[in-house]
Amino acid sequence: MKEQQPVAASEATAKRWTTRELLAWTTNFLKERSVESPRTLAEMLLASVLQCERLRLYMEVDREASADELSRLRALVMRAGRHEPIQFLLGQWTFHGREYEVAPCTLIPRPETEMLVDEALRWMRDSLTSGAFSTDIRVADIGTGTGCVAISFAAAARGLLKGSGGSSGARCRPLGGASTSASASTANHEVAANLAEMPAPLPVIDASTGEVVAPLTLSRECSLEDAPARSSSIALIVNASDIVPDAIALAQRNATRHGLDGAIDFRVSDLFSAYSKDEQFDLIVSNPPYIMDSEWDALDANVREYEPASALRGGSDGLVVVRRLLVESAQRLRTGGLLLVEIGWKQGEAVRALAKSNPQLRDVSILKDSNGIDRFLRATRA
To answer: Do 175 and 310 have their domain in common?
Structure first.
């Protein structure tokens, strides 16, 4: 029996469909197929087709859809009825205040992963405040997927460096070291002032200009000693890699979309396989595959059937890739460098034990997400 289509072509020629009618029809169609949040999904799909905000739908409930709009909506609703993720239907999704192109070649960005960016930015804030860097800051995002973590971090860090007096989005005015010149003294005061005036919450940065839109949480006790002037500029060097070539192509498009074309070195790589032996980093972040085999069948169908298993499944205990990542990252971090890894909700103790057993890692801790669930490993290179 042929599956009934919403707003069938024959119906479209027989009557004109208003926004009110389309919302009602689509909502009922999705509800009958047990699609989660059918009304919200109906609004999002129709707003996407009409290229308007969802609120506009209720301001123009009697607006009649064109034949082309009906055709595009019909195609999306049919896919939604088969439980395809809304992110793939829309072709984009929001992460850390920015829109990213998404595709079935890699994972859909999750809100929990935003904490990975937040922790990385806190580390950079504290490092700049303490004067830990004198030459460059090298960062690697392993398993970058859409590029959302690397791009969000690079854009915000770029804003931090510019806020610290840099002449471009990727560099900053010299930090650290004593200076007796009037210009250095003025610069020193500007650095301290910029750092001290950045209140909560964590940032959203206009990547094309490096301007802080929603500034970072920084200590208001920051002083000249907190951010002394150095004799050389600090360069931010961001690398991002993924084993899937299509994911790297997607991440590069997202970088261009956010004004970071050429600012991030993207590589097709199995963990660090595409990096030379002497490449070391101050910060390594990763959201690796960590779903246990025993959890796979219990995943929502829209995850299990539409997102790539290679980016999700981590073997019998979920730690096949994580084990390799811990060993290789410890070898790649500079002394005092930070490792941040997203993990599964049942894996906190196991991952903590793995990290503590590595003599190259210290200050090992497991960070919880906003729901109080173990979510990230945080460790420092000894």
So the answer is: yes
User: Which domain covers residue 13, as residue numbers?
Assistant: 9-82
pLDDT digits (tens, 9 = 90+) for 342-360: 999 999 999 999 999 999 9
Of 76, 1, 65, the C-alpha closest to 35 is 76
pLDDT of 187 higher than 50: no
pLDDT confidence of residue 170? 36
Report the 10 Å Cβ neighbour count for 122. Answer: 14
pLDDT, one tens digit per residue, over 62-90 is: 999 999 999 999 999 999 999 999 999 99
Whether 102 is in a domain gets the answer no
Number of domains present in the structure of the chain:
2
Q: Render pLDDT for 272-287 as a digit per residue (tens, 0 to 9).
A: 999 999 999 999 999 9
Distance in angstroms (rounded) separating the CA atoms of residues 379 and 339: 5
**Whole-angstrom Cα distance, residue 124 to residue 106?**
28
CB of 287 closer than 8 Å to CB of 342: yes
> What kind and span of H or E run contains 254?
helix 245-257
pTM of the complete model beyond 0.90: no
Tell me the C-alpha distance between 161 and 129, whole Å. 11
Q: For position 62, which CATH number holds?
A: 1.10.8
- 155 is a domain residue: yes
> Among residues 377, 376, 379, which one has the least CA distance to residue 337?
379
